[in-house]
Amino acid sequence: MESKKVNLPLNDAIIxxxxxxxxxxxxxxxxxxxxxxxxxxxDLLEKSEKLPFDPVGQVIYFVGPTPAPPGKVIGxxxxxxxxxxxxxxxxxxxxxxxxxIGKGExxxxxxxxxxxxxxxxxVATGGAxxxxxxxxxxSELVAYEELGPEAIRKLKIVDFPVVVAQDCHxxxxxxxxxxxxQKLD
Length: 185
Known about the structure:
By secondary structure, the protein is an alpha/beta fold. It has one domain (4-182): Alpha-Beta Barrel (fumarase). The protein is built from 6 helices and 7 strands. It has helices at residues 12-16, 35-46, 89-94, 108-117, 129-133, 173-182, and strands at 4-7, 23-32, 59-61, 99-102, 120-123, 136-143, 152-166. Strands 2-3-4-5-7 form a 5-stranded mixed β-barrel. The longest helix has 12 residues, at 35-46. The radius of gyration is 16 Å and the shape is globular.
């Protein structure tokens, strides 16, 4: 299957062309955030306060990268389990976030938010953090330095490979994949 090339930031028109199972190559800027950072972001949203970055059209990568070795921009940067962000992601999508990257299935509340706010959830290959880090050409601290690897960073990515796991149409590779293999029995 040929990969779709997508330049970031995202918009509704682009997202509507993406379907669960599509291979995608992303280029542009993304932000990192895991559990602790998401909690801080949602706390700000609930108080109607300004976020440390504008989420409109952006993609958040659920990652806690390791320190950069000499001569590298970033250390290992593999995806973290996305389910821990289930309670936060609908708030971020409502605030204008358009995409997320992680590993594993997102919950029902996120599925509904992807449809309602026209978003997309991508998965990156877990266990390939060192390889994925080669697709990151810039890393800039944005907020919450005290969180260490969970601080929010702005990353420039080039030819970053992902798969659409859950789309704005209700498509879900975790459900569709199981059904496909059940038909083989």
